[in-house]
């Protein structure tokens, strides 16, 4: 709910609902007008009751919170409020690569190979940092992402590349879900050794990134099937066609990079993400066009020009913290601003639902609708 307080945070709007968590854009406020937009991932209460999941989730999230790198989404806080475990993480104003690739395709714009390689290079840098992380005594932490997919790679409006959800994937695997499409989508990026029950290591993330990069460059879904079993068989036994089969003009050096990352035997892959990044950067440095963050930023902003304007209007509004409804209350609080005055209104559930439906159809929020009603009433009173 707009403006509801959640511990020291103010929830602004829901961004998404996943198999294990609800995700919100939130704001942290402090002295002298300090404000910081963040993302709150609230673990759903029914999932939080699974003790094995909670323990693994907490352990993995603690490790992920130790990661501080420009290409990794930062975790700021981890805790529990009421019956909800949550993670507070960096808010990245931008789009994930699944949205970017799909939007580019819908507009008939082939996603440039140079941008795909630039993004993959940044992902390699973040992965290598995480894979190499040690504890305070110098012992390897053996951090593996396990879920390198287009949805977990974000590009901000200023062209920065960020990996999402480090430390979440292993715990998520414990959650049974009926979101079959979501599970199948992630399955297409899992390494053969993981599917065969062997331990994942840094080379597993390299394979997943290889699948992602192959699809960005060729526009072809590498591993597919009507059932989970068919997808698994495609990954473990299926033939991987060289990307030049779909894109004949692909430079040989780029094909070599992809096929090295996609070796089904981990021992034949790049031994670490730095080696893969080195070959990508070596190619780009000699290529006729080497994209910068500015180039990538301009491309993404053009793709999502209208959506950027909408987001600015939403995040630019002043949000007033409102306490959660009292226990047993069915009247949610709403905040309305009219010419600088702030009014708190309690609405019956049925009226609130009706207004929400009207607001959604007209691309508004409930506060805007109420404000218009009040203005109309005062005008003709």
Describe this structure in words.
It is a single chain. The protein has helices spanning 45-48, 51-64, 97-106, 113-131, 169-172, 180-187, 192-195, 202-218, 228-236, 252-261, 273-286, 293-303, 305-315, 349-361, 366-380, and strands spanning 5-6, 9-17, 21-29, 35-43, 75-81, 84-90, 94-96, 153-156, 161-163, 333-338, 341-346. The two termini are 31 Å apart. The chain has a six-stranded antiparallel sheet with strand order 1-2-3-4-6-5. It has a three-stranded antiparallel sheet with strand order 7-8-9. The chain has a two-stranded antiparallel sheet with strand order 10-11. The chain has 381 residues and is α+β, with helices and mostly antiparallel strands. Helix content is 43%, strand content 17%. Helix 4 packs antiparallel against helix 8. It is globular and about 75 Å long. A hairpin with a 2-residue loop joins strand 1 and strand 2. The model is unreliable at 174-185 and 319-342 (pLDDT under 50). The chain folds into two domains: 94-308, Transferase(Phosphotransferase) domain 1 (Transferase(Phosphotransferase), domain 1, Orthogonal Bundle); 325-381, no CATH class. The protein is built from 15 helices and eleven strands.
Attribute tags:
about 375 residues, alpha+beta, Transferase(Phosphotransferase), domain 1, 2 domains, six-stranded antiparallel beta sheet, three-stranded antiparallel beta sheet, 15 helices, 11 strands, about 15% strand
Number of separate helices: 15
- CATH hierarchy class name of the largest domain: Mainly Alpha
Any idea what the radius of gyration is? Answer: 23 Å
- The secondary-structure class comes to alpha+beta
Estimated share of beta-strand residues: 15-25%
Distance between the termini: 31 Å
**N-to-C SSE string, H for helix and E for strand:** EEEEHHEEEHHEEHHHHHHHHHEEHH
Major sheet characteristics: 6 strands, antiparallel
Q: CATH topology of the largest domain, anyone? A: Transferase(Phosphotransferase), domain 1
């Amino acid at each position: 709910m707009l403006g509801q307080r959640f511990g020291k945070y103010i929830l602004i709007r829901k961004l998404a609902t996943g198999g294990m968590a609800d995700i919100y854009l939130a704001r942290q406020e402090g002295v002298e007008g300090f404000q910081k937009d963040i993302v709150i991932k609230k673990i759903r209460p029914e999932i939080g009751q699974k003790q094995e999941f909670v323990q693994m989730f907490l352990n993995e999230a603690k490790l992920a919170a130790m990661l501080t790198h420009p290409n990794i989404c930062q975790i700021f806080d981890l805790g529990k409020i009421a019956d909800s475990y949550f993670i507070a993480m960096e808010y990245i104003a931008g789009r994930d690569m699944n949205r970017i690739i799909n939007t580019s395709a819908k507009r008939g714009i082939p996603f440039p190979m140079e941008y795909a390689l630039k993004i993959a290079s940044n992902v390699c840098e973040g992965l290598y940092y995480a894979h190499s992380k040690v504890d305070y005594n110098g012992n390897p932490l053996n951090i593996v992402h396990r879920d390198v997919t287009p949805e977990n790679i974000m590009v901000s409006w200023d062209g920065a590349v960020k990996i999402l959800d480090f430390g979440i994937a292993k715990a998520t695997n414990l959650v049974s879900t009926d979101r079959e499409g979501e599970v199948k989508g992630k399955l297409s990026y899992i390494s053969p050794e993981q599917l065969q029950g062997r331990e994942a290591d840094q080379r597993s993330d390299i394979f997943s990134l290889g699948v992602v990069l192959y699809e960005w460059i060729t526009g072809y879904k590498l591993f597919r099937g009507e059932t989970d079993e068919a997808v698994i068989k495609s990954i473990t036994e299926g033939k991987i066609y060289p990307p030049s089969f779909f894109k004949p003009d692909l430079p040989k050096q780029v094909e070599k990079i992809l096929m090295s990352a996609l070796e089904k035997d981990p021992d034949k892959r790049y031994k670490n993400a730095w080696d893969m990044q080195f070959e990508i950067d070596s190619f780009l440095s000699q290529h006729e066009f080497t994209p910068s963050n500015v180039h990538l930023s301009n491309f993404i902003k053009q793709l999502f020009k209208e959506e950027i304007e909408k987001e600015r209007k939403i995040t630019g509004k002043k949000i007033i913290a409102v306490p959660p409804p009292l226990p047993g209350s069915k009247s949610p609080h709403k905040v309305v601003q009219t010419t600088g005055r702030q009014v708190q209104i309690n609405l019956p559930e049925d009226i609130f639902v009706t207004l929400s439906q009207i607001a959604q159809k007209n691309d508004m929020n409930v506060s805007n609708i109420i404000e218009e009603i009040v203005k109309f009433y005062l005008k003709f009173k």
